[in-house]
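> forwarded from #structure-qc
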């Protein structure tokens, strides 16, 4: 239904293109700088461990996980999981990604409020992102007040997804800022090598901007559909 609506393309098209561009940028930047070794010879796992120890986070483990660019920090289990390529390689891309994830662990230690808010939102968002659009569609096909009310419930549920995407932005930007500062101050990379680190982390940040834009524009489209229905 939505794909037959020209208005949907106006809302969904630009952020979709931005998302595709961001994915291309991050993959190409990572591929390029994963082939550039660090002068220090430090791998992603070693870089993460050094930064965690420097921050007094000896209780945070560093593990290898499967999947390309599947790197993440789990605040519940206090484990930093790095993809195989990042974990083992002594490359500019690897230490940049590893330092970024270590930045999340440091956020957790210092009680960085946006990270705490995002973590608290995860259970609600996991429901709203899947059920919100379904409930909205069901309500849209129903007539009368009940249908409208149900559609708005779906919109409110999905609004949590958009809010989650917005809260994610400062979390990711701050983690990259911490990573860039620590990589140089701890002697893991030189100022010259920071060009590659910046390329990888800035491209990754663009993917989160695209995700936020997609969620917001989809939410605005739902609201527009309801306004058209009520007029």
């Amino acid at each position: 239904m939505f794909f037959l609506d020209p208005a949907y393309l106006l809302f969904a098209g630009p952020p979709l293109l931005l998302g595709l561009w961001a994915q291309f940028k991050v993959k190409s930047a990572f591929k390029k700088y994963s082939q550039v070794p660090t002068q220090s010879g430090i791998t992603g796992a070693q870089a993460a461990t050094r930064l965690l120890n420097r921050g007094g986070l000896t209780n945070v483990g560093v593990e290898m996980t499967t999947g390309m660019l599947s790197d993440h920090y789990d605040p519940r289990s206090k484990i930093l999981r790095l993809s195989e390529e990042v974990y083992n390689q002594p490359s500019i891309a690897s230490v940049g990604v590893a330092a970024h994830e270590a930045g999340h662990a440091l956020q957790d230690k210092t009680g960085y409020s946006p990270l705490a808010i995002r973590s608290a939102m995860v259970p609600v968002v996991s429901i709203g992102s899947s059920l919100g659009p379904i409930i909205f569609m069901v309500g849209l096909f129903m007539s009368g007040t009940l249908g409208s009310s149900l559609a708005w419930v779906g919109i409110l549920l999905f609004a949590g997804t958009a809010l989650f995407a917005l809260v994610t932005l400062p979390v990711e930007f701050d983690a990259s800022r911490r990573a860039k500062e620590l990589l140089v101050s701890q002697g893991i990379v030189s100022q010259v090598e920071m060009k590659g680190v910046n390329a990888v982390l800035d491209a990754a940040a663009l993917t989160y901007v695209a995700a936020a834009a997609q969620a917001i524009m989809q939410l605005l489209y739902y609201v527009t559909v309801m306004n058209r229905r009520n007029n």
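QC bot note: The chain has a mean pLDDT of 92. The helical segments are 6-33, 44-54, 84-88, 92-110, 113-141, 144-185, 194-230.
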